[in-house]
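hey so u asked for the seq, here:
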Amino acid sequence: MTTEYGHMIQEYYVGRFGQIQESRVRRINSLSSAQEATELVQETKHEILKGFGSYPERTSLNVKMYGEIKCTGFRIEKIIYESRPGVHVTANLYIPDGQGKFPAVLGLCGHSLTGKAEPVYQSFCQALALKGFIVLIIDPYSQGERLQYTRVNDGNNKINGRSTHEHNMAGKHLGLSGEFFGMWRAWDGIRGIDYLLSRKDVDPDRLGVTGNSGGGTMTTWVSALDDRITMAAPSCFITTNLTNLENELPADSEQIVPFHAGSGFDMWDFIIARAPRPTIIMAKDNDFFDDRGSRKAYEQCLKVYRLLGAEDNIKLYIGEGNHGYSQCNREAMYKFFCEKATVDNNGGEPDLNTLPEEQLF
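ran it, structure tokens below
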């Protein structure tokens, strides 16, 4: 069997995606006024969100607390809420010591089996709490306490306990029924925002969202879908469709928005859809989410933000090292959120003590 033409389809689509990107860049370069930029933002938001489908009905959250952990400088409440009737979201709420209206952050997890208990994610939650932020971090489907297919075994690999397998199984089933798993994932986060804003100790004018990798994906989706979010920090996700294709990068079903690329849009358009609200695009210089694309995405967003008179509201940070929400990226997020929420950053990341997963159940 010859492999002489093994890349013909790959190269065809690389060329096609290159054409789509060039066309989108020309459209952005054609802008010459704040009015034109505003029209582009509205047009982009309307079109790219079509792939998510309609918003579900907002039903009762039925919030229940299952325990509390006292820590130095903050406490952790263990809660469950229902994003849809019978769909239970397990979460930890980090609350700083003290009184008053606190800025708040929704934390969204990447593909860690321990979900909200992953030490890296605990780290940014604890650090933000010590800086004076309330943080709600939720388990995604198929991670932490939210396994879905607990009785499935395909004979080779158990589906349960492997987040990407479960995500793609759910995505295929939902796709056949005309729905997008990314909307189910994003709706968990949007209802988390609803919960935060129901609290008297949360300032609705200082509301952030952050996450890394798959959590960077959901940060990007949720911040485009929900106008209440004032600041966003997606890490290790934003690049370009073209670089992902050139690198033959696999992705979960919630990361592939229906009709997105075919309608002429790119990954940066989710950031443009929330312009001019503050956003920091974070990447790593040795990541499979290629930082060349991250730079390209930032350049396109900067053009729009600049026309809107909000150049300081769009930032790019590229940390050293491999894929992950490592300390350098977390500290870039702290600095950005503290600046936008007018909170004292107190210099970097404090000393932290992460907890065993079972203690956070």
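The mean pLDDT is 95. The first strand starts at residue 64 and ends at 71.
lmk if thats what u needed
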